[in-house]
Design a protein that fits this description.
5-stranded antiparallel sheet; globular; about 35% helix
Length: about 260
Amino acid sequence: MLFLSDLDGTLMDSNGTITEEDVNSIYQWTQKHSFGFVTGRDHAFCMELASKYQLSCEYMITDNGANVYYKDQNVYSSLIDLDDGIQMCKEILKYNLDLFYTDEVGNRYYPVSSYGKERLHSFEKKQPSLGRFSNIDILEYLNSRDLGLAKLSMYVENDLDLLLNQFRDLFKNYEVMATSKDYIEITKKGTNKWEAFCHLPFEDAIFIGDGENDLCILKNLKNTYVMDHAPESLKVYGVCVKSVAQAIDIESRKENV
């Protein structure tokens, strides 16, 4: 059986930390079964996280479903057209938002030419979990790429709902979603965690999540869990628990009945 977990707000706290209880539960689970991440985070981040906690994690759905990995091999991608992505960046910059792009190996690019290095350093301090950014401007980098883009990310301190609606009107041919209380992200139309799951070499799984972008999986899988801090609208789609460890414990007990 495969157990899939969302990261931010589910397996990880705001500092990017996984509790010892959750780590030990995953260790026990992977003695007999498989485990994986389902997240808006990029693949490089997921690999580093799995290595840090020595987690056996063969399955990874990353970038809100834009990429799927099995045994470190990319088995599915849903990418924004490069030229469209560049144009979207130019439109987003008009809103003076903290826009960034993360490449395949974890390098992050920011509008340094538009906003200046001082603002970049201030943003890095606000969001330390993102790590350090490249000094190369985002548009300069994108103009040097050949491949499409997994997702564009924006940090939004104020008026998220207003901006979300504006960007949905502006970019109607793309998926525009609030992935947390202060992030808006854009992916290719039709990209989501459930579509990505359908490209894994696995027919069924257990899933735990806590955000609106998890709803597509929660609605479609039979065996699901929802963190107790999740919005009430999500809690009808799974068993409410306080931790990944609690969900794994419930599943383990089922096997011993």
